[in-house]
Design goal:
alpha/beta; 7-stranded parallel β-sheet; 38% helix; globular; binds NADP nicotinamide-adenine-dinucleotide phosphate
């Protein structure tokens, strides 16, 4: 699968499996675990999770899904801002590693800004990296001014920023995405289907039908067509996990891209970063 480069030289695959809302209900656990295992069997090379999801239960499901596999996927997890002090980040990372039963998180992110000072969090990330417990570190839900602050700290941060970005929420294209591209910082687009809401848009449905794919595949292929963008749709259903992988096969013509621009116009000015 195509990938982007992280500062460590590691490659981050452009498509992965999201896990938000997993682990919240014991009734749905088996189905969630099955969808992750099936996704890995199909060749998804990345899983995105966080200590927040299901209060740790999503990480446990991830641990179960990857246990005993020969090649394990690239793992992304996140620390809560209220745990992101120097000592708190290290303790949170240890807990995440234990829940997933792994030695190392490939990319560890600050979930959003607002807890400890970012220099403290980054100091902890650097210590975790030195100890081999994480590969790269990054942030999430950082708008341009937050990114500028983070880079100004000179703590070696330039790995990734995970933000809300999809056809119906194109704000980052105005300033954040070009700024990140210039610095070769991959953007991880979360909620690429706008949590399902995007798939109900008539324009997307009709354009997808016109080129013989599903609305989800078109929404994901549009993100994947953009350099420096990684995305992580979530599904707890086998059929949808397979369907979403099909987005990789789609190559979008300039005409369809122009029609998507007409239906979902790019931003004309600065829009504050949206967050879910
Ligand atoms: N950093 C952050 O602050 C942040 C915030 C939000 C999300 N995230 C990450 O990004 C991942 C993805 O975002 P998300 O979960 O919010 O939303 P999403 O991936 O845009 O949408 C997920 C929803 O769409 C449905 N779905 C998935 N594939 C589908 C398909 N082919 N056809 C129809 N429906 C489909 C899923 O239902 P089923 O499960 O029933 O298939 C689920 O309800 C998360 O899981 C999480 O890992 C990060």
């Amino acid at each position: 699968m195509r990938s982007c480069k992280l500062p460590s030289g590691a490659a981050i695959p452009v498509l992965g499996l999201g896990t938000w809302r997993m682990g919240e209900s014991p009734r749905r656990r088996a189905e969630e675990l099955d969808s992750l295992k099936y996704g890995l069997d199909l060749g998804y090379p990345l899983i995105d999770t966080a200590e927040m999801y299901g209060d740790g239960s999503a990480e446990e499901i991830v641990g179960e899904a990857i246990a005993g596999r020969s090649g394990r996927p690239f793992i992304v997890s996140k620390v809560y801002p209220h745990n992101a002090s120097r000592a708190g980040t290290i303790a949170a990372c240890e807990r995440s590693l234990k829940r997933m039963r792994i030695e190392r998180i490939d990319l560890y992110l600050l979930h959003w800004r607002g807890g400890a000072r970012i220099e403290e969090t980054f100091d902890a990330f650097l210590r975790l990296r030195e100890a081999g417990k994480i590969g790269d570190f990054g942030v999430s839900n950082f708008d341009l001014s937050d990114m500028e602050d983070a880079c100004r700290l000179d703590k070696g941060f330039n790995a990734s920023n995970q933000v809300l970005y999809c056809l119906s929420r194109r704000g980052p294209e105005f300033d954040l995405l070009p700024w990140m591209r210039k610095r070769s910082i991959p953007l991880m687009a979360y909620s690429p289907l706008d949590q399902g809401a995007l798939l109900r848009k008539a324009a997307l449905k009709s354009l997808a039908q016109g080129i013989g794919c599903t609305p989800a595949q078109l929404a994901l292929a549009w993100l994947l067509a953009q350099p420096g963008v990684v995305t992580i749709p979530k599904s707890a259903s086998r059929e949808r996990v397979k369907e979403n992988l099909g987005a990789l096969e789609l190559s979008l013509s300039p005409q369809i891209l122009a029609e998507l621009d007409r239906a979902f116009p790019p931003p004309k000015g600065k829009q504050p970063l949206e967050m879910l």
